[in-house]
Each structure stands twice: as C-alpha cells, then as structure tokens.
Amino acid sequence: MQRNKIDKISKNVNSFDKTVENFDSFDKSTIAKDTHSQFVKLDNTFKSTVTKVNSNDSPVNRLRNAYTYWQSINANDYILSIIRDGYIIPFYTEPESCSLRNNKTAFDNAEFVGSEITKLISRGCISQVPELPKVVNPLTQGSRKGDLQLIAIKIANVCKLNNIVLLPQWVPRDENVKADQISKSVDCDDWGIDQEVYSVLDNLWGPHTVDRFASDYNTKCLVFNSKHWCPNTSGINAFDQDWKSEINWIVPPPSLVSKCIQKMKQEKSIGTLIVPYWRSAPFWPILNVGIEGSQKFASFVGDSRVLSSSVVMRGRGKNGLFGKTDTNFTLLALKIRF
C-alpha cells in the first residue's frame, strides 16, 4: 500500500518536471507578441468606449432600446423590468415635494454646474421650466373626475405596452390658453336614441351611413361627425360636411332642427331626423302643414313614428336638455327625403 503511494507521487513529480521543461523551451517572443496584441485590443476597446461615453448622443432610452437583446440572452425578470420601466427607488414612504437651495459647492463652481446642466438639457435628460412646477403623483392623488382618471390610466398602459416614455412638462397657464379652453368645452347635447329603437328605424329607413351629431362613445354609425375632435371622427361640425349621397342619421339639439332641415333641402339629401314633439317650437311650422293641431306633415316627410321619452339615452353632458331630469314629452322620428 505504501509502495503504491510512493509510485503515484513519483509520477506526478515527473509530469511536473516535463511541464517546466516544455515551458523553458517555449519561444518567449511568441508570448510577448500575443500579450502585446491582447493589450492593444484592450486599449482600443477602452478608447472606443470612452469615445462613446464622451459623445453628445443622448443617453435617454439607450438601454431601453436594447431591451430585445437583453431578452435574447435570457436576462432575469428583475433586470428586464429595470431596463423597461427604469429603476424605481424603494421608498418606505413617499417623500413630500419640496424646494431646496443649492449646495454651497454649486455656487462656488457655478460655471461648471451651469455647463453640465446645459449639456443635460441638450441631451434630453432634463428639461427647463420658467417657474417652480407643482407636481402631484397621479397614482396616489389621481383626478377628481373619474373619466379623466381612466384616460390617464389608459395612456399609462399604452406607454407600458409599447415601451413609450412620456416626459411631462409643466406649462404656465397663460401659455396654455387654447388647450385649457378646449378642456372646458363640453357637449351638453350629447344625448342619443336607444340602440334597439335605432335598429328598428335603421331596418325601416336605412341603412344609415353617417351619424351627423355624435361622438366616439355614442355614435350609431361607423362614420360620424362630432362637435369637437374625438377619436375616429370623420369631421367636426356636421354643417361643414356634405350630406348628399348619404343616408343620414340626424339627432340634433332642438335649437338646430330648422338648420338641419334647411341643410337637407339645399343638398337634396335623405335621412332620419329625430325631433321633440313640440308644437310650439320654431321648427314645427316647417314640418307641419294644414290645419293647426293636425299631424299632416310637409311633403318631404315620407314617414313618421312617435317615440316615447324612454328611448332617450343620456350623454355625459350634465346641463343639456336631456341631462338633468327625466323627459316627459314624446319625440318624433321622421323619414326625410328632398
């Protein structure tokens, strides 16, 4: 047993001696050349890296743009989430917003700090505002209006799914007049007719091709006109559109009924017109002819149906005719053909 151990040790020593001999006989110049070559490659790589870092290319989204590469090398979910969403500082509690004075060193090195800030602005890393912005966290504060909060959530979801980064920028009120005015403009007459009733009338007098007074959330047709811009609208202000060669679905504010009839007459168009059954309304003499109190309509009215007030579908407008209280009058559906 002892003899076997000695033989094994002897073999290992002989093997080591041969390795040393081979190393001594190896061409040292070859090692030097290879080592020098590796150092040159490393030096070039370092210089290239430094050049890239010192370039003026914006670093914004640089890592995010390589997201698919990180996926391809099977990076773990934590790394992928940071690349996709950025690093989220793990606060125990959300810090309150505040405004702090710059450190003394910033004032002592104002020229350097100013130049670095200018670089960050030019590269899109930060943005400058003329006044101290007031910001709240929408995830904790939110909007008092539910529909606006839903819009904000939808925007956030779209951005997350499509790897979009939004950089909100505060704008002073006096520079945001148009957008502020549009946001306060509400369509108070965005009421409509029950879908089931519409389907019956569509089968009778349709198929209707354009809803002239609608929005993206209450239109009865694929093509529609709206009071303000909204998704998928084919035109703003129905009276600026061409009604000819279409079967129009027309549910206007009562104050615009006369104007709608005049528009259809001028363009010799056809369609279904929904109006309140108001004998004292300004539009009634245009529709009704003959003895007062009769239901004999003008020749351009081809057919009619009486509708109860229950067919009215309220819109989002809170102060329109059909927005506050239940209606207690009937309506008329009129088949118009000029």
Give the helices and strands, then pairings:
Blueprint: H1 2-25, H2 28-54, H3 67-72, H4 77-85, H5 104-108, H6 110-122, H7 146-161, H8 177-183, E1 192-193, H9 195-205, E2 210-214, E3 223-226, E4 235-236, E5 247-250, H10 257-267, E6 270-276, H11 284-287, E7 301-307, E8 312-313, E9 331-337
Describe the structure.
- The chain is of the alpha/beta class and 338 residues long.
- Helices cover 39% and strands 12% of the residues.
- The protein has helices at residues 2-25, 28-54, 67-72, 77-85, 104-108, 110-122, 146-161, 177-183, 195-205, 257-267, 284-287, and strands at residues 192-193, 210-214, 223-226, 235-236, 247-250, 270-276, 301-307, 312-313, 331-337.
- Strands 4-3-2-5-6-9-7 form a seven-stranded mixed β-sheet, covered by helices on one side.
- It is elongated and about 90 Å long.
Overview features:
single chain; 338 residues; alpha/beta; Rossmann fold; two-stranded antiparallel sheet; 9 strands; Hepadnavirus_pol/RT
Largest sheet: 7 strands, mixed
CATH class of the largest domain: Alpha Beta
Q: Span between N and C termini?
A: 120 Å
Q: Which spans have pLDDT < 50 for at least 5 consecutive residues?
A: 23-32, 45-55
CATH topology of the largest domain: Rossmann fold
Rg measurement, Å: 38 Å
Task: Using the alpha-carbon principal axes, give the shape.
Answer: elongated
Order of helices and strands: HHHHHHHHEHEEEEHEHEEE
Number of strands: 9
Query: What structural class do helix, strand and pairing data support?
Result: alpha/beta
Could you tell me the mean pLDDT? 76
Total separate domains: 3
How much helicity do the residues have? 25-40%
Strand content: 5-15%
The oligomeric state of the chains shown is single chain
Spatial sequence of strands, sheet with the most strands: 4-3-2-5-6-9-7
CATH architecture of the largest domain, by name, is 3-Layer(aba) Sandwich
The number of helical segments is: 11
